[in-house]
Amino acid sequence: MRSIIEKFIVLSFCFYNSYINSQEVDLVVLFLFSLIFSIVLDLLKDKKHRYIVYMTFAFSAFINHNFLLYLPLITYNIYQDFKEYTIVFFPLLLINPNPLNMILSILSLYLSYSTSLFNTLLTTNKETRDSLVENTLYLEKYNEQLKIDKAKNIHIAILTERNRIARQLHDSIGHSLSSGILQVEALKVICDEGFKESLNILQETLKNGMEDIRKSIHNLYKESLDLESKIYELGHDFPDLELDLNYKIYSELAYEMNFDILTIVSEAITNCAKHSNASKIRIALIEQNKFYSISISDNGNNFNKDENIQAKGIGLSTMREIAYKYKGLFNYKFDNGFKIHITLMKG
């Protein structure tokens, strides 16, 4: 817009100069041809084509010296293509000397130079702005990942402590009770009949205590490792969303993969609840020979492919990073709802 205004000013002065110096020629034709030269130079992207226009204008100026009165207008474009070499074109002014024309040429050169500096600064500012926006988005994503990693580390620490407690119960108290039960059994062999009833009661009490400890240990392991139950718990947080889970993972998953799969499912359920009018979500976790397959789909139809993908950006980005972390694949599409398919490689 700035260059258009500046060229209009130069064109106006050129027209005035041609009016006071070339009244015997058709000023309208001269004006229109010069204007066409200028517009064509602005429209052409290829420098070679613009060079042809410059040569055509120079040839026209040799044929009709009155065209030189519009050289300031063309100088505006010449500087943008040739920079400091624009001075080479100034001898053309000597063909038809005109003080005002010389002044206008210098003014046009200065305006073009200023606009070039302004455009360079504007481009630099845009690049800086884009870089800042990119860095801001990266920091937001990095902070989100830090939160996920922190939650993951806390969860893993909790699971590790639970397993440590379970092992300790099994190794210390469990063994002590087992030893006590065996000792009571030995006492029953050598003691009088009058004490056997009491020993039976004691033995039964120890056995019940042993069974309670085994159940507690089992529940501790189950709570820390049962991915299927955790997914159902996530589904309970969204009562309006029916969860259909097909769970066919039989191997014991590492804590980190366990948590990562839970993160994927959590992001999918949250996105479905926030950005879709779905009433049902289907989740399939299937173990293959070389990888784990995760398929998630819903029956929503309230997706705007441009707007909602941006709204889901961090969730989808997190899923993609988890997939790449395990050298797997990540795909999603819209097909009667939103569908996600992820593979996580074993080992």
Describe the structure.
The chain is of the alpha+beta class. It has three domains: 2-119, no CATH class; 151-225; 227-345, Histidine kinase-like ATPase, C-terminal domain (Heat Shock Protein 90). 69% of the residues lie in helices and 11% in strands. The chain contains ten helices and five strands. It has a five-stranded mixed sheet with strand order 1-2-3-5-4, covered by helices on one side. Strand 4 (329-334) and strand 5 form a beta hairpin. Helix 4 runs parallel beside helix 5 and helix 8 packs antiparallel against helix 10. The two termini are 60 Å apart. The mean pLDDT is 78.
Outline the fold blueprint.
Blueprint: H1 2-21, H2 27-43, H3 47-63, H4 71-82, H5 99-190, H6 193-225, H7 227-236, E1 242-248, H8 255-275, E2 280-287, E3 291-298, H9 307-311, H10 313-325, E4 329-334, E5 338-345
Parallel strand pairs: 1-2
Antiparallel strand pairs: 2-3, 3-5, 4-5
Stated plainly, the CATH topology of the largest domain is called Heat Shock Protein 90
**CATH architecture descriptor name of the largest domain:** 2-Layer Sandwich
CATH superfamily of the largest domain: Histidine kinase-like ATPase, C-terminal domain
Number of helices: 10
Give a count of the beta strands, DSSP E runs of length 2 or more.
Answer: 5
The 3D shape can be described as rod-shaped
Q: Tell me the major beta sheet.
A: 5 strands, mixed
**Could you state the order of secondary-structure elements as H and E?**
HHHHHHHEHEEHHEE
Q: List unreliable stretches of 5+ residues.
A: none
The fraction of residues in strands falls at: 5-15%
State the domain count. Answer: 3
Compute the separation of the termini in Å. 60 Å
The first-level CATH class of the largest domain is given as Alpha Beta
Q: Structural class from helices and strands?
A: alpha+beta
